[in-house]
Amino acid sequence: MAMLDINFHSNTLGKHHEFKVFLPETTDMFENNDVQPLRTLTVLHGLSSDHTMFSRYTNLEMYANEHNLAVILPNADHSFYLNMKYGHSYLDHIKEVWQYAHNILPLSKKREDNYISGNSMGGFGAFYVSFNFPELFSKTIPMSGALGVDEDFLNLDWYDFDIQSLIGEHTKIKGSELDSEAIIHRAIETHGKENLPEIYVLCGIDDFLIESNKKFIEQLKSANLNVESQFKSGGHTWSYWSESIRDAVDWIFKDIEVDKSKQIINWVG
Questions:
Q1: DSSP character for 108?
Q2: How are beta strands 69-74 and 114-119 bridged, if at all?
Q3: 269 pLDDT tier (thresholds 50, 70, 90)
Q4: Residue 116 phi, psi (nearest 5)
Q5: Alpha carbons 151 and 172: distance in angstroms, whole number
């Protein structure tokens, strides 16, 4: 696969920022100009990570190549992918990155060809971004997402991370931009149930977020939204996410046939 590191001027952030892209290659891709736009997965990083982590700690590149799938890896710092109360507008930035990448690269803009996933903070982000912009994504796969969290989350102590910078002076999760139940109902009211993405929730049974993920699933079901889930052995670790990102890609393609006859495979020894 081709791996691109793109640094561009972000109008939403008012500064230069970076993202990474994986592009699958085929044996005949340069033989004519009839390039087929690629299905694309946007993957969002966690609180202690950045846009490079999935290329460093998982085999996402290999899984994507097996499915002729392009991957966009944005960088969103400690934002939780929100338009921060005191900070940058990272929700808008993710849409900006999506649009920028799709305008300069051979990526399909069809909703049915676009998906989003992420781990931990990025799991919340995958849900949050796709339920704010359901016209862009047909499937969302949060992995170990910070979803369905309760008031204890307000006390999260992580280096210079400040939850007030995200949601302001809220003293409760309920009613804030981290309230997954409120986000669900707002998305239904704004976009309609039928226009929201399919959702597949993944979490390790040893993860400290397992119960909140189960709560999130019940919130989706209570809103009469279809949701699939998988809970298997694993914690809040890259060992788990390196497996679950493959499960995510497999789920995306469960009903999609991929032509593998012209793939370029570079890891046969």
A1: -
A2: unpaired
A3: low
A4: -145, 140
A5: 6
Helix crossing, 90-104 with 121-132: angle to 10°? 70
**Strand (E) or helix (H) holding 114:** strand 114-119
Query: What residues contact 61, with CB distance under 8 A and at least 6 apart?
Result: 1, 3, 22, 55, 71
* For the chain, domain boundaries: 2-252
Provide the residue type at 70 as one letter. Answer: A
CA distances from 131 to 135, 170, 179, 196, 197 (A): 9, 22, 13, 6, 7
Q: Count the Cβ atoms, other than its own, within 10 Å of residue 254.
A: 8
Alpha-carbon torsion 93, 8, 63, 38, what sign?
positive
Are 72 and 41 in contact, with CB atoms under 8 Å apart? yes
Q: The domain at 2-252 falls in which architecture?
A: 3-Layer(aba) Sandwich (3.40)
Helical H runs in the chain? Answer: 53-57, 60-66, 90-104, 121-132, 163-167, 180-191, 210-222, 238-252
pLDDT digits (tens, 9 = 90+) for 210-252: 999 999 999 999 999 999 999 999 999 999 999 999 999 999 9
